[in-house]
Protein 1
Amino acid sequence: MKKIIAMILAAMLAFAGVSAVAESLTMCTNVAFPPYEFYGDDGQPTGIDVEIAKAIAAKLGYELEVVDIEFAQCIPGVQSGKYDFSAAGMTVTEERKQMVQFTDTYATGIQSVIVPEACEFEGLDDFVEENGSVKVGVQMATTGDLYTTWDYEDEGKGTVERYASGAAAVQALLAGKVDCVVIDNEPAKNFVSQNEGLKILDTAYAEEEYAMAFAKDSPIYDDFNAALAELIEDGTVKGIIDTFIPAN
Ligand code: ARG
């Protein structure tokens, strides 16, 4: 009897030991970008990216660890191998493709312009025409930053204020420090619904595709992307997106 109990105990310990060291995949992102990543009521990161990544990790037998860093650090962090991948509502661009490899696309976005509700302008060019220049708030290193830098700052038509998060850029707009914020449309809708006195203008830039980013020599890229493709195929990804973007 004692022997049996000892054996059961040993088995339990071994099992506990194994599960305690269950390998995890680390995902880096910037968690102030609802509905793609935000802190849920339980204080844990959730959102479209987090839940899709969790489903992929589970399918591959890994735990998922989400690390909240600056968006600008996501690509360098993946390139250096510090994180296994980045899922951050990240737009696929030619420049980024030189640095990382992207999974299949799992969502699309458009850059939107958030302005105070009383604003009568229809787009960034109206600010330039009426006021001589425009002061744009963006999240640093995002496509909103890149596009407005090229089209307004580099052209001498305005300045771009770069914030650590989209949420911080919106706070700057509420405080009157910038004329508008250029950011992806779904986060824009979230920020406008969560804050009084803001509205969204018609989009300034064309549709973008979101994908997750891996180091070019990542050993798990192929398995991960295959699992993502299956979850897109079987409707899991759409189900997750519909949970976070109702009436999509
Ligand atoms: N789609 C934009 C880009 O790729 C913004 C992404 C910002 N993501 C975030 N998690 N804050 O540049």
Note: The chain has a mean pLDDT of 93.
Protein 2
Amino acid sequence: MSRFSEPQDPLFQALDRSLEIDRRLWPYDVAQSRAHATMLASRGIIGDDDREAIISALDTVEQELASGRFPFRDDDVDIHMAIERRVTEIAGRSGGKIHTGRSRNDQVATDLALYARDHAVRLADQVETLARTLIDVAEAHIDWALPGYTHLQRAQPVYLSHHLLAYVWMLVRDRERFRFAARQADVLPLGAGALAGVNFDTDRPMVARELGFAGVVPNSIDAVSNRDFALDLLQACAVVSTHLSRLGAEIVQWSSQEFGFMELSDAWSSGSSLMPQKKNPDCGELLRGKAPRVVGHLAALHGVMHALPLTYNKDLQEDKEHVFDAVDTVTVCLDAANGMLSTCSFKRERMAEAASDENIAATDIADFLVKRGLPFREAHGVVAGLVRICAESGRKLSQLSIDEYQAQSELLDQDVYGLLEQSSWLESKISLGGTALPRVQEQLAQARAVLDL
Ligand code: ARG
């Protein structure tokens, strides 16, 4: 029997059907159905014979799904209905008992929480792998100088190791975000029923233990309407994608002929279909280009959740595509970043040449004056004057005479020429977190300790 006397419109069916998206939840749906049936039998809500018939049918269903031989039907609206339908075909009347004390509302929330937890844990590990690679690359280029930039103008030289470690710290925070998302997904929604709880004396903690959850959601209304764990996972995905986009963008710049700081391996480059000389950094560009898509998924799920009345609404069916695509995208991007970085090579000479632009020492001359008693703002003005003389006369700072220096400030003497030697600009950055080599060594050790390396 059905409550309806007319068939559904095929257009509505097409809109409503979510199987193509949610079928990948099947391992979680099978696992929770096993745990649920086991609990129902342990409470005497279904018989042991029912449990056996259900579990054995679930074993068959699992094999069929794993091997791609599951007989999906056009009227399977989602993975939950498909699995229940098939269990009932195999187990007969006992199969009809699997949905006792369960609603698709707590069922889908449980599947998604299991998925989110697994992938958040996995992505935290993947982030860690990339951080390790970056640490190795940093260590291999510990004292290779390159210009640091602000506004994409050469600002102050830094060591490549220092620059790469900046990304390591981003990834350390990303790992934390994924771990947080995993904890948020680690409580069991199942047992909430449609929204109010169920008419049976179930054992939710038992189901939680079976599925490896740390606890159960304490409120049945929250259990079926909560998707915060999905937002948290998407947030972690969005932020790490943004980090990868910055890394990708720098690789695009660095590998250009204009910069010439690095070369990508052939394995991580593309050619041009037209111009035979080209070696394109498509991987870096895609790290840059994929990020807005992931951030878009986060914004879209916020949109779905916004002002949504409690409890379950079909809007929630729209959560999964955003989560899945964000997770898939970040998974491939993290692997790609790892592959590209572990095979690229840096050009020491080119970077050193760019870092030896003497104008980069301007701040150092100002600080030299400060150490001799001039207020910083006045020192800034003195050096601006020197840089201007250089620009107007087409010379470098080291080519100005001592008289020219002293005309700007009597505090300047021969020592100023020592400041213009390249290594001094790096090794003078001795403050905690600075680019001086001993500080970078400290930082490397700290990063290794945080990552348990
Ligand atoms: N496919 C649905 C979803 O993804 C499952 C839950 C359906 N619940 C309902 N009351 N219609 O949200």
Note: Strands lie at 145-150, 153-159, 187-188, 215-216, 262-263, 345-346.
Protein 3
Amino acid sequence: MCPNGSLGRGGMSFIPHIYALHICTSALIRTSAHLHILSAHPHIYYFCFMTKKVRVRFAPSPTGGLHLGGVRTVLFNYLFAKQHGGDFILRIEDTDQNRFVAGAEQYIIDCLNWCGLNPDEGPHIGGPFAPYRQSERKDTYRQHAEQLVHDGHAYYAFDTTGELDAMREKFKSESDPQPQYNFFHRNQMRNSFTMGNDEVRQLLMEQPYVIRIKMPQEEQVSFTDMIRGEVSFSSNTIDDKVLLKADGMPTYHLAVVVDDYLMKITHAFRGEEWLPSSPVHILLWKYLGWQTEMPQWAHLPLILKPDGHGKLSKRDGDKLGFPVFAMDWKDPESGELISGFKEKGFLPEAFVNMLALLGWNDGSEQEIFNISELTEKFSIERVHKGGARFDFEKAKWFNHEWIKKQPVQDWQLTVKKDFEDKGISITDELSFIKVLELVKDRCTLLTDFHDQSWFFFKAPETLDLAAIKPKWNEAKKQFFLEFEEVVGALQDAESATIESAFKDLAAAYNIKAGDLLLPFRIMLVGAKFGPPVFDIAAAIGVAQTIERINYALNHFE
Ligand code: GLU
């Protein structure tokens, strides 16, 4: 169904775009360099005979934090664009002034940057179709709304909030508990259908008004979704949506269509929650005379709560103990902080990899993909229709795999900052890297590194005495007193050298080396965890090892 699955891979910069040539035939059509079969419906083959540069967009409203579902939408758009040598555009849909939140736009840009999914055009970098903020394109929309009125596809409505409420009250019934402003009720409201031209002209100058789309009656509005196939809606179920608001701003429905057209968007991948709006958009494309330019739609499946019941909402995360936003988001008004994957200790590569697999796979068992592999292998046809259940444990698994896979240098600075925030300053980068290498197998999140390795940089103050007390004795004490001297006299302080000195001395004392390892670990770490104890001794050095043994022996007394 998707036209692009077999085309445009391997660096082609243009892919053919569906044009309105439909031929009814059941015969197989041969493809050639200039003519490709794009989509096979029963007896309908779509051909393309024109090429168009792929242009996709992410069009968030700057109303708060960026949900992981939003980042996945970005990712699928981005992968598709890059796969086809196309452009990925960021457009800020800020026409709803009531929901505008200061700082949200910059936050979205920062999130995309952290994920490495940077747009080719956007409000922060400009581009040939600027401005990329809808509030700055206000004048563009009105002319299209007026054109729709002129062509009979939209109308002026003067109803006040009180009148709208009264209408809903009046027509409320058991079968229709929430009456809509639609083909049935519009005839009884104050609008350019029910009023004479003179009165309308007068009111336009005197009163606030909106422009509403005139939804047709008894019409099936259908389109082919790249994931869902044929999708069809009855126009009767949809109200006469407001297109232009009383404040002169367009609503989302008008702005999204006008901008997708003006910005030459070829494919629009967005969340499933927008599917019910699609018939309004399809009709607007048709009414504005742009039908042949309409992008291909793909409505991405929802991301579900871990138990599979319902959409994963921004509130779920902190409630269930995991982040839902890409990065920490602090609401500028309430001051409320909603946590993000970045600050939780995720690598962007792992976050992106995990998101790609939420609703998509390449058909193999492979789970770890870097961005170039994803770009090569992604195909919108393999995105599932059903919702994808979010699993935080699996997300952590991805992060662990990426921590092991990525060179330490790639995330060393992030971990260093975490150490510094927690009161440990790192002065020797080389030994820091060695320590990170030593403990990385034990770390699932970047924030785990501090807990897994702080003792390399700071002697423990408290010691888990309870762990060794029952088996502590004079012979062991003598062993460690002598071991201090042995270590002090070693030619080199490599892990293996310390280990063999330790074992030789244990043999001389006739104590099983294994019985001495736990006390030694408690001396160096303070507790029963950490990488091999001789690696720790080697890393902290001879002087520090002796000092910690001494400190501990004093406490064991
Ligand atoms: N402004 C919409 C949003 O906030 C965009 C939906 C679309 O991509 O059409 O998600």
Note: The first strand starts at residue 15 and ends at 16.
Protein 4
Amino acid sequence: MTATLILGKDVSEEIYAELRQRIETLKAKGVTPGLAVVLVGDDPASQVYVRKKGEMCEELGMHSTIIRMPGDTTQEELMTKVNELNNDSAVHGFLVQLPLPAHLDEEQVINAISPSKDADCFHPSNVGRMLIGEPDFLPATPAGVQQMLIRSGIETAGKHVVVVGRSNIVGKPMSAMMIQKGAGADSTVTTVHSRTKDLAAITRQADILIVAIGKARFITKDMVKEGAVVIDVGTNRVEDPTHPKGSRLVGDVDFEEVKEVASYITPVPGGVGPMTICMLMANAVKAAERTMEVSE
Ligand code: NDP
């Protein structure tokens, strides 16, 4: 068997088309959805992510603000900026690009973001709302994975979903979303992590295997059930002298091997990657729509 590919570009294009219509509707009512991104320091990967977010806003006709702060920004200066954005009516959603330089307290910053503008959905009150099944926003990467499943017509109800990884950004919210009632969920979920015993015995039971650990090609063919759906969130840079850059991106799944047993699989790059920015944009549009609901 060779698995069918699920491509983030295809799924995200479908969602962008829907977002464009929602943005038009907002603009017709005099509201241009605005997303702001705060970047502290000059981490090269973060700079690329932030630039891509700004470009996507512009492509969609959204208002984009990128605030670059120096690497030696103090906690107080950053908190002042967060407060300014909380009170800026042109900014419907914003995020502070993580990771922050080591001297800054990420938790304090996340807690200070107004939950109604929390485009990343990292604020504890939004995480809690998601957990009780009443989300205002959804965390971008897990929401992107869920959309890939829904829009590829993959049944999730009653299926055994195994999530590998338990980070606050991917693994935990992913598991919490898949146990909710409703479309793209209603699953029986097992979460495994670095302290799990006989992890392969559990991954082999998965109808849908979602992997987010940050370990290159960790999931091999023998860890996957014949016909399983495999979603690879991992992005790992490995050396490759044949590549012009001397390195390339691979996932947490051994793609070449696992595609022979899976029914569906996401490649890296080109799989989950494009979905994260897409769902971030969806959160910003939703935040703008909510301000209309409040004022109507
Ligand atoms: P974290 O490092 O925060 O978490 C990794 C998780 O994997 C932890 O829960 C850890 O377990 C678990 N883990 C690590 N090693 C093993 C192992 N050998 N066996 C089982 N579990 C293990 O990473 P993130 O969740 O932030 O990211 C995971 C991957 O996804 C990374 O490659 C990241 O780059 C990628 N990513 C991709 C995105 C995209 O848009 N495509 C967005 C976000 C992330 P424990 O808790 O026990 O330590």
Note: The pocket of NDP is lined by residues 141, 164-167, 169-171, 193-195, 199, 212-215, 233-236, 272-273, 276 (CB under 6 Å).
